[in-house]
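# step 3/5: fold
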Amino acid sequence: MGESFAAIVGYKGNGAIIHYTASEKGAAMVKNKDILLVDSGAQYKDGTTDITRTVWLGGTPSDEIKKAYTAVLKGYIALEQLQFPKGTVGMQIDAFARLYLWKLGLDYPHGTGHGIGSFGMVHEPGQGFTTNPTTSTGSTEHAPNQLTTIEPGCYKKDAFGIRIENVVLSSLKETTAFGEFIGFTPITLFPIDRQLIKDSLLTTSEKKWFNEYHKMVFEELSPKLDNDEKEWLRKMCQKL
């Protein structure tokens, strides 16, 4: 039905400006090389989307970029796979997405996720993930049947911006003697760029997650595509 917000498209150093809007002065021409961050969303009849992908357009990515990108991916996987007791708030969860960046002396200056509505606010209070305990995203308990983004990132001024963002659905995973436990399922279906991953930094379980996610992406999307699009998607969803 239309965009849910104006797309953020940051090429190279402009990707490090978190809420970047291209203007005539300072805008960059996108070429078939280097790094591009695209944060976009749309309003559909069955829901609102908010997705970010960082892609490599050509050339050879530096080791610095690959380490940062892989740390962002590891943080995304860690938070998405987390299972936690009912009553847990956003501030308690946020650090799981930052852990691997912190190990490299890196961080990002924004929250890790926010609630998302339908034909309303894309950033919808109150649940989310943040380091700040005084905000709604830091202090609100997570509950089943909510839509929330997970979007860790890493930004180096005048050099690059990296962010990976999916919308996830929370649900009750199990009930034990210790109470009810909640977890997440991704509902955003789009490939995550393999070119920027430093394979040696991923564990076996992280590679398994990556391959299973892309298997789901291909199986869900390919029936809706023509042959050329299907082959492009097949290539993008290859196993690590």
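# step 4/5: annotate
The chain has five helices and 14 strands.
# step 5/5: archive (pending)
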